[in-house]
Write a structure and sequence with these properties.
Elements lengths: L5 E6 L3 H12 L1 H8 L3 E7 L13 E3 L2 H6 L5 E4 L5 H12 L3 E4 L2 H18 L3 E2 L10 H8 L5 E7 L2 H13 L3 H10 L8 H4 L2 H15 L9 E2 L7 H9 L2 E12 L2 E12 L11 E8 L3 E8 L3 H18 L32 E11 L4 H11 L4 E6 L7 E8 L2 E2 H12 L4 E10 L7
Parallel strand pairs: 1-2, 1-4, 2-3, 4-5, 5-6, 8-10, 10-17
Antiparallel strand pairs: 7-9, 7-11, 9-10, 11-12, 13-15, 13-16, 13-17, 14-15
Helix pairs in contact: 1-12, 4-5, 5-10, 7-8, 13-14
């Protein structure tokens, strides 16, 4: 007996929407065999025509809310992006008893707690695999495949634009602004690249990963974000000389004091798995107590890679649609995610302990380095490595320092005091260093 079709309404026919439409259409037979029932596109809402999609015989509309209230639609696929309209669309769909599939990381990171509560009350599924790392099934892996593990840390290159820029800065010795302009010309970076290069996009994704890894509510507003616009070609070169590579990482760790949730440029040892991930590719490393280190690598964006994850979610919905809600996998992996964040609070950045790379420019004068070393010592910070370049006459001398692990609060005070020295020019460049020890 063939089960009745699952009827899909697609909202948005841009890059991901078009890819989803085409994958669903092209692989319809295989998808039906995997789901045990056909997945049929009932309606498509789009603002403009996508020339790559043949909409012959498909009911279309310009009003996404028409899809959310269509009694013939079982699952609404939200691919319009943004915050407010997307939130209203998803809440309307849930209110009308529709299951929801979304690729919208900003929506889930910011409004997810509210959306999941509404969905739970209505007994509908909200699936969001495509919201993090495009076609890489990392949410499913964390939520299901690693379910036996106590996760100690998650670290990822989860923004392809930033990784593209840092890769080309390293390979070609170019400046940040130069590579960013190229990334914009190639369509990897938006005209306004703020979300990508300042770490906001990665923080949305990290927020979702951390909630699933540790069973805590989504808390995007507590994520620390720092961008890559201040990284210079010299920083990239010096890191290389010291045996490190700079990556724009999202890092979440479980500690005795709570959870770390931070996105920033990071020096990691060249031999780490993440260090070899280049260009626009994404990768997420997860450390579990039973499994050890695992790495999830692939395309973090693009029409069909992201569509791969959207359609995988549709498959899951089709399989679970007749399962009683309490027997389905919980949205954030844990049954009864506690609203009480006291057990595992998100730690403020100043309470985090890590090692540091510092670059400062000093007047070429005796005793400057000694004063810098004294300040670090007084703040309880020990130096691991030091490089002082030769200065040509009248020039400022670049000094590169690597420190042992120390509290961010102490480093903030040390940097404040160093920048106040008369012989130090401008601000101190600080990049955090992580070993991401795969033997943990």
């Amino acid at each position: 007996m063939t089960l009745k079709p699952v009827r899909v309404g697609i909202c948005g026919l841009g890059t991901v929407g078009g890819g989803t439409f085409n994958v669903l259409t092209r692989n319809a037979d295989e998808i039906a065999r995997r789901a045990g029932r056909p997945l049929v596109i009932e309606q498509v809402a789009h603002r403009s025509i996508n020339p790559d999609c043949d909409l012959t015989g498909i009911r279309t509309t310009k009003d996404v809310f028409e899809v959310a209230t269509n009694p013939n639609v079982d699952v609404v696929v939200e691919l319009i992006g943004g915050y407010e309209v997307a939130r209203d669309l998803v809440m309307t769909a849930i209110d009308n008893g529709k299951h929801v599939v979304t690729a919208n990381k900003a929506l889930i990171a910011v409004h997810g707690n509210e959306i999941f509560k509404a969905a739970h009350d209505k007994g509908v599924i909200v699936a969001f695999e495509a919201a993090v790392a495009g076609g890489i099934p990392v949410i499913k892996s964390l939520r299901e495949g690693l379910g036996a593990n106590r996760i100690s840390w998650v670290a990822g290159i989860i923004n392809g634009t930033g990784n593209y820029i840092l890769t080309h800065m390293r390979d070609e010795g170019r400046a940040f602004e130069d590579v960013l302009a190229e990334a914009q010309a190639l369509g990897y970076a938006e005209a306004d690249p703020t979300f990508d290069v300042e770490g906001i996009d990665a923080a949305h994704k990290l927020t979702i990963l951390a909630s699933i890894a540790y069973g805590v509510p989504l808390q995007f507003e507590k994520a620390y974000t720092e961008g890559i616009s201040r990284i210079t070609a010299e920083d990239v070169e010096q890191a290389d000389n010291l045996g490190y590579i700079i990556k724009h990482l999202g890092i979440s760790k479980r500690t005795g004091c709570g959870l770390e949730l931070r996105v920033h440029p990071t020096l990691i040892p060249k031999e780490r798995l993440l260090a070899s991930v280049h260009g626009v590719k994404n990768a997420i490393a997860v450390m579990g107590d039973a499994v050890g280190p695992t790495l999830y690598y692939g395309a973090g964006a693009g029409d069909e890679p992201t569509a791969s994850a959207v359609v995988a979610d549709l498959l899951d919905v089709a399989r679970d649609i007749s399962t009683e809600h309490r027997y389905r996998t919980p949205y954030l992996a844990f049954s009864g995610v506690s609203d009480d964040c006291d057990e595992l609070p998100i730690m403020p950045m100043e309470e985090i302990t890590t090692a540091y790379y510092l670059r400062l420019l000093a007047v070429d004068r005796p005793g400057v380095l000694a004063r810098v070393a004294t300040i670090l010592s007084e703040e309880g910070i020990s130096i691991e490595a030091l490089i002082q370049k030769e200065a040509t006459e009248g020039e400022l001398v670049p000094i590169i320092l690597m420190t042992h692990r120390t509290l961010e609060k102490q480093m903030n005070e040390a940097i404040r005091r160093i920048e106040a020295l008369a012989d130090i020019a401008g601000s101190v460049t600080r990049i955090r260093v992580e070993s991401l020890d795969e033997q943990d």
